Amino acid sequence: LRMMNRSFVPAVRGDPKAQEQMVLAATFAGVGFGNAGVHLCHGMSYPISGLNKALPHLGYVHPDYDPASPLVPHGISVVVCAPAIFKFTASACPERHLAAAEALGADVSNAKSSADYAGNLLSDTVLRFMSELNVPLGISKLGFKHSDIDLLVKGTLPQERVTKLSPNPIAAESLAKLFENSLEY
Known about the structure:
The chain is mainly alpha-helical.
């Protein structure tokens, strides 16, 4: 996360040294994911990407992709719900959420270890990156509506191999609330 904090924005803007660092950071992250697993951000990303071509009112096309091929890139589908998810998971381990926020550049010198504070701080830190890099700030920016939430939940529930790794128990109702909270930031 510290490598990402230093290199992510410059890498997206074309800095070759920062891009090298992001490749290394992504490799380290992949090793970590391979050992520890991933959870809600990934589980909820599958229906976001999968429904993009299936629902007539969608068809999101990322600005850097071929407009003839509607596609929500993996990274976008994963991060777009992350701010809401981090608020939800913070109660399981506020200290880890604060550590992640600090690694991503947040000032935690006056931080409180409450779950609400930790979840909000990490969420706001991720939103800062998303905003700076012009990432859609919510699933509504991809075309999803409140009426799509049931389909998104139905698409997430079968992803049990990753959703079961959530530090907080997850059910259809909590997924629906997460998607609702992810509509717009």
